[in-house]
Amino acid sequence: MSEHPVGNRASHTGSDDLAELLRLARIAVSDRNYELAASFQERALTFDANNADLWSDHGAVLRALGRPSAAISCYDRAIGLRPQLVSAHSNRGNALLDLRRFEESIDSFDRALAIDSAHPESLCARGHARVEIRAYAAALVDFEAAIAIRPNYANAYLGRGNARLALRQWDSAIASFDSAIRIRAGFAEAHCSRGVALLRAGRSDEAIASFNNALALRPDYAEALSNRGAAERELGQLEASVASCEAALRTRPDYAEAHGHLGTTLLAQGRVDAAIAAYDKAIAYRPELVEPYWNKALALLTLGDFERAWPLFEWRWKLRTALRKRNFGKPEWTGDASLTGRTILLYCEQGYGDSIQFSRFATTVARKGARVILKAPRELIPGLHGLEGITQRMTVGDEWPSFDFHCSLLSLPLALGITLSTIPRAHSYLTSLPAKTSYWGEVLGPRTMPRVGLAWSGRSAHANNRNRSIPLSTFLAALPGDCDYVSVQKEVNEEDATSLQANPHIRHFGNRLRDFGDTAALCELMDLIVCVDTSVAHLAGALGKETWVLLPANADWRWLLNRTDSPWYPTMRLYRQATLGDWQTILSRVAVDLDHRLAR
Predict the structure, then answer these.
(1) Of the residues 362, 387, 422, which one is the last residue of a structural domain?
(2) Is residue 490 domain-shared with residue 415, that is, in the same domain?
(3) Do 398 and 486 reside in the same domain of the chain?
């Protein structure tokens, strides 16, 4: 009889203690004192170890403390006690997201949504996970569903923007980030992601403003600092870029992406060894990241260390770009299998310049006894005339021939074991089509003075076009007047079109250059080609024409370091900027050298 009241008193006291501990834990959470909150929750669990909500709340606190694995154990306890607890399934998925276990996180969100299909937090979080596994269309469905349920859900707008960003839909991504910011003015993540979209869209100045807005809200925001460094690099502000990346790394020394951005800026400064060290750190911290391997390949190629570079060069297939490795239902040739009496399909994968440069290896493959089929863009095929060993040329829409192996042109150096000293160095490996050369000879008419072909800008879509191109007005102002100048590029921007109108002595044919066969014929008829780093440089070099190439300080890997010649093209001379953006200095040198050549 006497034990019952005692038991009631103990139960009453335990209940009061539990309520007080839970109250104190809630206060600590609101103050973001998660260590204190965790200690209160742990004591509360000694009173009520079968409380599913308490286990779930404890998981949330442990996750906030950066202990996602321990949080998952708590969510598992909560789910074991109450299998229908939606928040536990959803938050378990978030903890798995923290651990980058994306497929498992999606499974947890699926379980939450099986219980409550209109749970916006689970829809939004599953969308974020799907972005990580590149299931962008499915992610957009999740974000739109979350927004339909909760129209002012800022995080769902952020996720939708990130999915559209991954799909390269810059304007719609920016619009989604703007919506997130309107809903939550202090949303630093949305400002940062907006900056990334602006950066990808080529609007680097605006991107920096967005990153600065994020940093005003969160001064130690490593992602905003690192991405600001990338934007500053795009604008040629290399010292500022290094400073931003280093600031990000002071905040987060293990931030792999910041090490990667720093490496790319160091590479642009010509500090190649330091760039490689930065990429190695990025790889050490996040071995699954693709970009550091790819960028390290470019750095090694810049040094001429082809043996180590070509294997890493294959990481390009994993980049988040439109580039995808082809699967033709036949084995890829990697250099091991004999090609004697076999047929191989070689195909172009990237820009015109790359295709022209690497097409030389088709001849090397043919000399191994292979029957070679070359697949190339329709407009490029006439420019690849004279390439030895090609049995058949094909393009998009042609009927597929039978073949035994396939290989991308840019994977041939790895398969062939090409080193700096074994690059095929024929004086020329392409020729212009006789009919086109004859036609353009008639168009140009009798030669009355030296003919100089000019190409001053590349394709606007090229990542480094801002730095590698020269305004035509700047280009022309430095050149002597006693030459017959002929534009050998097809496309011009509005500013350059105005310069052409003001300089009618510069002959420009625009859309009359229907394909690379026309461009090759024009180049063949020139005494000299003066150009920037664009496809014309590769075409002229492959034709064996004397070619002067003007390079930015952050020149592409294929031009190596500190060389005035090229192992790829024996008839080429390289002019290099000392400082990014300073074209005047090398244009002055070109003008002097051109005067001397004319005098000869």
Answers:
(1) 422
(2) no
(3) no
Residue percentage of the chain with pLDDT more than 90: 81
Q: What is the CATH number of the domain that holds 551?
A: 3.40.50.2000
Q: Could you give the maximum distance between any two Cα atoms of the chain, in Å? A: 125
Q: Is the residue at 522 inside a domain?
A: yes
- Whether residue 377 is found in the same domain as residue 462: no
Residue 101 lies in a domain: no
DSSP string, 388-430: TTEEEEE-TTSPPPP-SEEEEGGGHHHHHT--GGGS---S-S-
- Closest by Cα among 147, 150, 126, 146 to 138: 126
Distance CA 319, CA 291 (A): 7
CA distance 572 to 568: 9
The full DSSP string for 430-485 is ----HHHHHHHHHHH-S--S-EEEEE----TTSTTHHHH---HHHHHHTS-SSSEE
Tell whether 49 is covered by a domain.
no
Total domains in the chain come to 2
Q: pLDDT by residue (tens digit) across 525-573?
A: 999 999 999 999 999 999 999 999 999 988 999 999 999 999 999 999 9
Pairing of strands 451-455, 528-532: parallel
CATH number at residue 392: 3.40.50
Q: Percent of the chain scored above 70 by pLDDT? A: 96
CA trace torsion 364, 365, 370, 371 (10° rounding): -90
SS3 at position 116: coil
pLDDT in tens, 277-296: 999 999 999 999 999 999 99
**Coil, strand or helix at 374:** strand
Among residues 398, 422, 446, the one where a domain terminates is 422
Lowest-pLDDT range of 69-73, 299-303, 326-330, 525-529: 326-330
Residues 352 and 447 in one domain: no
Q: Are residues 360 and 455 in the same domain?
A: no
For residues 532 and 412, membership in a common domain is answered with no
Residue, of 11 and 54, whose pLDDT is higher: 54
Query: DSSP for 14-57?
Result: HHHHHHHHHHHHHHHHHTT-HHHHHHHHHHHHHH-TT-HHHHHH
Give the whole-angstrom CA distance, residue 317 versus residue 325.
6
Shared domain check, 400 and 376: yes
Asked, for residue 414, whether it belongs to a domain, the answer is yes
3-state secondary structure of 487: strand
Cα→Cα distances 76→38, 60, 81, 101, 507, Å:
17, 12, 9, 16, 74
When computed from its CA atoms, the radius of gyration of the chain, rounded to whole angstroms, is 31
The secondary element (H helix, E strand) that includes residue 148 is helix 136-149
DSSP, res 486: E
Same domain, 500 and 590: yes
- Check: CB of residue 522 under 8 Å from CB of residue 513: yes
pLDDT at position 48 over 50:
yes
Q: Is 173 helix (H, G, I), strand (E, B) or coil?
A: helix
| Residues 433 and 520 sit within 8 Å (Cβ to Cβ) | yes
Which residue segment(s) compose the domain that 526 sits in?
434-599
Q: Label residue 508 left, alpha or beta by phi (over 0 means left) and psi (-120 to 50 means alpha).
A: beta
